[in-house]
Structures are given as C-alpha cells and as structure tokens.
Structures
1.
Amino acid sequence: MSTRITERPIRLDDPDALRRWSLRCHAAGMTVGIVPTMGALHAGHLSLVERALAECDRVVVSIFVNPAQFGPGEDFERYPRTPDSDLELLRGLGVHAVFLPTVAAMYPETPPVRLQVAGDLGTTLEGAHRPGHFDGVALVVAKLLISSRAERAYFGNKDAQQSVVVTRLARALDTGVQVVVCPVVRDRDGLALSSRNAYLEADERRRALAIPGGLADAARLFDAGERSAAALVGAVRASLDRVAAEIDYITVVDAVSLQPVEKAGAGCEILVAARIGRTRLIDALRLGLDDAPVVPG
Ligand code: AMP
C-alpha cells in the first residue's frame, strides 16, 4: 500500500538545507522539481505541483513572500500568509519537501549583488507599473534554482511576463533548469485564481469578472476570424469600462518575445492588468490555445 498520501513533506528552512536535500535526491538517482510560490495556495498553484509530481521523482514547493519583488507602498505586509493550510494541502498531494525560509534566511545581509532584467523585458507591462519588480523576481528565482539544483522549475502563465523572464534567466545563467510554464487555472466563474483575490469584497469580485468576461469576448472574436489586435483589445476594454476598472494595460503580444503585435495569431496572447478598488489583478489568455474563460451569463 502506498504511504504517499500520509507522508509529511520534509520542512526545509534555509537554502543550505534545500541544497543538501536536493543533493541527497540526486545521489539516489532521482530528479528534482521545484515549484516556487508565495503561499496562500490555491488550485492554480496545485496544478503546478501536480504537473511537477507527474514529471519529477522528488518535488519541493517553496513558500516565500519575497520582499525584493515588492515596491514601496505595495502589499508586502498584508500579503496573505497561510502556512498551516498550505502545508496541509501539500501533504495531501504527497509533496516531498517544502521550503519555507524566513526573510533573514534568504537575505542574511543586504544582497551584495543584484540582477537586472535587461531591456524592455524588465521595464514594459508589469515592469512599467512595478519598477524593479522583475529584478527582485530574478534574484529570488536565481537563488532558488541555485540552491534547489532542480532539473525542472514550474511557473504559471497567469504571470505570463514572469514566465518569460524566468525562462530567459534560467537559460542566460546556464542553470540547465528546464522552465515549465503551465496554463492559467480559473475559478468556476472564470476569474483567474490568485492569492490576491482574497482582497476583493463581494461587490469587487463581481466587477472583477469583467476581466475574464472581456477575455472571453476577445476569444470569441478571434475564433470568429478577427485578427486586429486593436479590435481584440477594444473588446476587453469595453468589458472593463462597464465596471469602471482602472486599466493599467491591455495588449496583444507575441508570447515568446512579449512584443506587441498588430495582427493577432496563434502564439499570441492577450495580457491584462487592472485595478478593481485597491486590488490589482492580472490575467493572460493564449489565443487559439487556451480555452476561453467560461463566464456564467
Ligand atoms: P504566486 O504565489 O502568486 O507567486 O504564484 C506562484 C506560481 O503559481 C507562479 O508561477 C504563478 O504564475 C502560478 N500561479 C498563480 N496563480 C495561478 C493560476 N491561476 N493558474 C496557474 N498558475 C498560477
């Protein structure tokens, strides 16, 4: 009988412990997958974990709210932290190890080196609205890839730009890590799952449905043959305008280069960032690939 379900994940508290655990796995001939998260786990995170468990012999999930990727005035302090229920969920899935470091364990001193995401990639879209964000992401992901020595690392396409940054970082730093990007998981009402959805009041949550609603409208247009990026963006904008969301950006980009396109095609995605009340939400839809969000009428 399998004991996998009841096995507790090993708890690792600092990068050295993570590295030693990974070395033991490798010494036993096993491959290692890592799923980096900031916790407050939901089914979107769990889809990454399940994919990692299917593809790797040993899986570590990291839970770390990384101060380096939050700007001044952002939600670092109030970001939801639910380690007990996170551990319960991961135990249920049969995850082998959980890396739960403190800030002091990850950053015992002001980092004496910095990583900078070069060019447009770090400064457009999310980077334009959250200056320095991707430099902070790059630093923590580089540290996680180095200490975990994983063969594969799993990220979600909800954070589409982050997935591109991380894929390019893993390659540029010769980590040998294969970055696996997984599809967006949505709630039954179509809203992309996010730890930040917990901030939404009931009325805001209803308004937030304008994001997947707009993406569904755009996907329908695309499926009906519309290829003008401006028309697809217009459909999403109209939906967001109906709920008076504050739009940071809506754009159609090439999914690999993240460069905006005028004519949409397969391999393009629509990226959205908008504020509903105080809550900033992002979403992404791959045209011709992802199922459009199903938003109950
Ligand atoms: P976070 O905890 O928000 O930093 O997310 C950790 C990882 O989970 C990132 O790679 C995210 O892109 C991914 N993720 C978050 N929400 C979803 C979702 N709804 N569907 C798929 N992946 C997600």
2.
Amino acid sequence: MIRSAVAGIGSYVPPKVVTNDDLARLMTTSDEWIQSRTGIRERRFAEEGVKCSDLAAEACRNALSDAGMTPADLDFLIFATLSPDHHFPGTGCYLQPKLGTGPIGCLDVRNQCTGFLYALTVADALIRAGVYKNILVVGAEVHSSALDFSDRGRDVAVLFGDGAAAVVLSPSSEPDRGVLYTELHADGRFARALYLDIWDISKKPYVTPETAATQDIWPQMDGKTVFKHAVSRLSEAIQHTLSVNGLSVDDIKYVIPHQANMRINQMVAQKLGFPEEKFLHNMQRYGNTTAASIPLLLDEAYRTGMIQRGDLLLLAAFGSGFTWGTALVRW
Ligand code: UT7
C-alpha cells in the first residue's frame, strides 16, 4: 500500500520583527494585553513590495533542499493562502516561475487557517491514487498589508504575522509511515464570523472608491464566537481522530495545533487530557500565520530535533469559514 510521506520540509519568515510594544505605538494596546489574551510576543512583517509568492519561494527552496530534490523533480504544486499576490491568477502560478519548475499543475487552496490541512489532504489523495509522485504543498501569508492598525482594527491586527512553510510530499512504501489519516470540516453558516468584504462580486463594479474608503477594506472578526467554536470544534475533531484510529493521548508524541491563540490550544489540551507540553507552540514569535502556521511549527520542531523518525503527530487547525480539520502523520 502506497502512502504519502514528508520527503522534505522548509520555512521562511521575513527578517523584520514587530513587537507588541511596536504595535502599541500605532494603536491603543499593550504588551500585557496581547500576551495575556493570546500568548503572542512578536511577529514578522514583510517589507513593502514583498509578495506572498516571494515568501513561499524561499520556504519551497528550503523544503526542496531538505528533500534533496530540484524543482524539476516536482509533479504538482498546491498553494494555500488567504493573502494571495492578486485575486487571480492563483498564487501558485506566480510561485511556479520563481521556483523554475516544469509546466506542472498549480492548485490554489483558499481555506484560511485550515488551508494547509486541506492542501495536505488533496496532495495525499493524489499520491495514494498514483496520479502524482512529488507534490509541493506550501502555506504562505502576507497579512501585514491588510490589517487595520488603528484602534478600530486592534482586535485583529495584533494577532497576525507573515511567513511561509512548505513540505514536499512523496510516496512511501513503509506501511505505517507518512500521512495516516486526515479529516476536514466546514460550517459556512459562520462565514461572517471572520471575513474580508472588499471584493464583492455582487456590486457593480465590485470595488469602488467609496467601498475602498469603508471598513470593508479590513478583515472583520467576532473574536468571542471564533474563540468559542475553535475550542469546541478542535476538541471534537481531535477526539474523533483518536477514537476512529483506536489511539489514546499517550500514542501521540506531539499535537501540532494551528497557532491562533495560546489560550484556545491550552483549553483544548485540558479538555482532552493532554499534558500541556504535548501541544507545541511558536505563536509567541510569529503570531498567527494562517496557512503557514502548522508547517512553520512542524519545521521548527523538526529542525530543533524535537521530532524524530517514527513519532506520531496530530495536526489540527480551525479558522475562518468556519473550517477545521486534523491529520495524523507518522514522521
Ligand atoms: O485562526 C482563527 C483566527 N482568530 C482567532 O482565533 C481569534 C479568536 N479570538 C480571540 O483570540 C480573542 O477573542 C481575542 C484575542 C481577539 C480578544 O480577546 P477577548 O478576551 O475575547 O477580548 P474581547 O474581544 O472581549 O475584548 C475585551 C476588551 C474590549 O474592551 P471593552 O469593550 O471591554 O472596553 C476590547 O475593545 O479588550 C479590548 N481590546 C483590546 N484592548 C487592547 C480588543 N483588542 C484589543 C487590543 N488591545 N489589541
């Protein structure tokens, strides 16, 4: 039986560090408020002119190098982002020539904080079906251009950061290694709990100088609703993943959760009886990098030697849509 496994992983964050104190110079907030509510201390912001595909290209080169592959070895590319370079074409098409792959297919995935897990699931299915061999799966975001740094947007602006991370997924004939299981969910009734309205195709034309001057230009969030659902849906999905696979908390080496809010993840860990140290975090340094957050954390854990061959990892994400999901990966 063929499974897909991570053949290489890499990440990239822009060098500019923005601390909570830096944000407090732009809006009424404080390091104490941000850290106590979210766990975030700082994040990275891309400079003017840097596109999402630029961050992605760096991460992909690192993943290819880790896999010992060249861009010519790739058969397909899946790009997850909510901050595409432009509305169309898809950011995969902008990334492809930067990497210099052959004319391989490029699929964009628009599933926000769960984007990486949606992309991983599609890549895994394509590999198991024998359609493609080496698939590059990348999550990347440039949030810093689309955040309202005034007091009106402070609830959202302090949460997000820029970054990119990628994996090369390839066939593995080892029966118990690689992507063992995934589950994906969405509940579109909550689409308006976290959204960006500026591009509205029902308006003729879809954007006007008037709409561009409204709050529609910035993301809007009902933070309490997102928080409450994140805790419930993540807990249910992780519990379900364990039970259908006949696993217990002890079988999981680490949970690699989406990095939105430390308190969300701590509540989920507590609810399910996971020791806190099994839930890994790096949002303290990067904030919420949406589609990049899970592979960014995975890459860091791998590079620091925390993850060893054979470890069973449970990946879990929740975000705008609402969308959520899990994956079980044997490293
Ligand atoms: O991947 C999914 C992405 N999003 C999330 O996961 C977000 C989930 N939600 C959250 O993380 C939390 O709801 C937040 C961190 C966004 C907010 O925390 P909260 O404990 O729910 O605070 P709140 O919205 O109830 O606001 C409490 C107070 C309010 O002031 P008043 O009305 O009590 O006077 C806010 O105006 O905090 C105020 N506030 C801030 N104060 C300082 C909101 N944002 C800020 C800020 N700095 N940045």
